[in-house]
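Data card: per-record layout.
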Amino acid sequence: MDDINRTEAGNEETARRENDSWIKRHFNYECYMTFLNGCYSCKWEAQRREKPRRPLCCCSLRERIFYPWLIMSFFLSVILLFTWVETSNEYNGFDWVVFLGSRIWFFWSLVLLSVLGILAAYTTMLVVFGFLLCWEKNELYLHWYHKVFAPYIHLSSISAMVLLSWPVAFYLIHLEGEARMRRNQNTSERRRNKWCNMLTKLRVLQVVVGLPFLLILLCLYVVPFGTYSPCVQEKDKLAPKPDFFGHRGAPMLGPENTIMSFEKAVEQGAHGLESDVQISLDEVPFLMHDYDLRRTTNILEVMPNASDEQSSFFYWDFLSTLNAGKWFADSWIKPFFGMKPLSEADRERARSQKIPKLSELLQIARKAKKMVIFDLYTPPHSHPSRSSYIRLVVSVILDSKIEQHLIIWLPGSERNYVRSKAPGFQHIGRLFTIERLTKEKITRINVDYKNLFYDGLKEYKAANININIYLVNEPWLFSLAWCSSIHSVTTDNIQVLKEINHPYYFMTPDFYMFMWIFLDIISAVFIVAIFYSIWLRESRSEKILQGITSYTETPSVRSLHEEVLRVEETR
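The structure for this 571-residue chain is written out next.
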């Protein structure tokens, strides 16, 4: 009788160990479930072991609808993260746009990046916890606090396939071990049918987990066949390094659109100087980017009631008295993230900067023999120079005695007049059709750098049209422009880009082929080794478990056990 009791106790213990998940066997299950429910449902009371586990279908309709939506938000976060990281070159422009609405200069782009990261990590946690609760067949109840913030996820990351292979291998081999153990069991026909269904479910789970992993891995192995990168080319085909146009001078070294900024750009070896020209109320062309004077001058201190007035509605006598450098030198928030501190001499010089006239910029360019390109703002309707501003600016340029070939004329109005008065100007257009550029005799275009990503502007290169792209601040983007045979770039970051002597990520096709095949082989070997090591460990664990239960598998005990089962089935 004692032998029978020991046998039944051993069978119960073996069955319990086989049916329990690996989490129950290795961790405190009550703490584990309490943690999951606490994070997902904000219910932190201890979860009892005897609480029946429910199928997922017992969840409310609201929860069943919300969880797939949460998963879609997770995938959306990956797309938004990738987009925001790839547009890091536009962070300063984003900060400027926010300034126009808020009137507060700050690194809003980094604030947004931080917020998106926190929200995305938060929603990723909810997706994982919800999945684990479903796996443990617990009812889902997402707390309303989570439901308010969950839709705003904007960050997640995709783990490398090699790192992902470890949990995938562990899971697949664990399922294979359970399937093999159940297949080797000898029991009644009724239980055999039940376990056959369980084997089918285990195989399905293996396919659901393993097949996507394998397909993604294979896609990664063959994806170079369908990819193109301008940075993969022969060394002798690499174009010369693009020239630099200092965007409003060198705005990381001095206040933008000031004499100091343009002189710094010349010192850094800029090929040309870029600026923005507006016309004062008494018809003096001056340099100012914003439509008002709040951001880059001290007008709030001098004339706060007129601070919202357009820049063109002031006389030059007043504009020339404003300080255009203290905002740059004394503000605790710098205009560019990562900008190096100014020396004390540069700080003092920046504090004394004024708004310059166009003629002052032309004098700097004439002495240094630098090219000049500028955006010419059309005066408002009630402005006295509304109809004559083109002629006024052309007259100022000619009076400066600068060599005409140093002027790159961007405004599209009255080109015929400009050509008649200044035939030496180099005319530059926007992203017009090649037919229009040919008709207007324009051999140079000025385009946004994002147009580079479509087809590399191949048609314009084939038509021998020089291309200048703006605004390029990041070294990786400058490297892409270099590999794409772009002739020049407009940049805020000239002091950094000028130090790049070879494009980043450049490689020859042969080297790329070698690295592709080499990494494929190494990763495949590594993944196979991971699967084998986990399979070996699980096999050893299975042998130990079989040794523990070997007593219950003797013929006499097995026949007695089957007799007891037959009696139970006849009841």
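Known properties of this structure: Residues 404 and 423 are 8 Å apart (CA to CA). The beta strands are 243-247, 272-279, 285-287, 371-376, 407-409, 426-427, 444-448, 466-470, 488-491.

See the next section for split statistics.
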